[in-house]
Amino acid sequence: MTPNDVLDEFRSAGALLEGHFILSSGLHSPVFLQKMFVFQDPARTERVCRALAEKIKEAYGPVDYVVSPAVGGIVPGYETARHLGAKAIFVERENGVFVLRRGFAIPEGARVVMVEDIVTTGLSSRECLTALREHPGTLLGAACLIDRSGGKADLGVPLVSLVQLDIPAYAPDRLPPELAALPAVKPGSRSLKS
Ligand SMILES: O=P(O)(O)OC[C@H]1O[C@H](OP(=O)(O)OP(=O)(O)O)[C@H](O)[C@@H]1O
Ligand SMILES: O=C(O)c1cc(=O)[nH]c(=O)[nH]1
Ligand SMILES: [Mg+2]
Question: Binding residues for orotate, per the UniProt record (predicted)?
């Protein structure tokens, strides 16, 4: 699958949104990739995650465990793991901090890749990687469907992506006037209260 094929999947799923969005990092952007519109279609999800699994195999070799940050990473993590013949587990926030819960464990010597849906600043990915360092296993690197940082996000480990885009994102006090004029929405799950 070429980057354009992947973007076409997002486009035809209606997942390329324009407006005023507050991202997980607190940055504001005129573009949001609503990955859940892709993941609600299992056939579409299968196509993109099979392509990601192929890239992961090429970059890292065999993988035993895929670990993803909830919520957005769970579906692509599972589907990518299916193509890799790996287990799929996830970290979720406990008092705001990513941890492995539910009795999930990584065996000594397991080959581990972190799979994220979208990377913007890399903050969620780095938080997930920090959680993983508390556990056994060999961390091979990270992977995501779309890196919207234009390759600038630094995870401290290698990152493979299906698509690299450079999408503008602004600090709240640096908004261009046309963006500030639009009402802002915050689609992600960080800071949601139950
Ligand atoms: O690289 P970053 O700046 O961290 O941004 C990308 C993260 O933002 C989204 O998660 P979010 O926290 O919005 O919640 P979600 O996974 O429930 O969508 C997305 O799923 C990534 O995890
Ligand atoms: O940075 C984010 O929070 C983010 C950006 C994006 O395009 N899609 C998404 O789900 N999260
Ligand atoms: Mg997320």
Answer: 120, 148
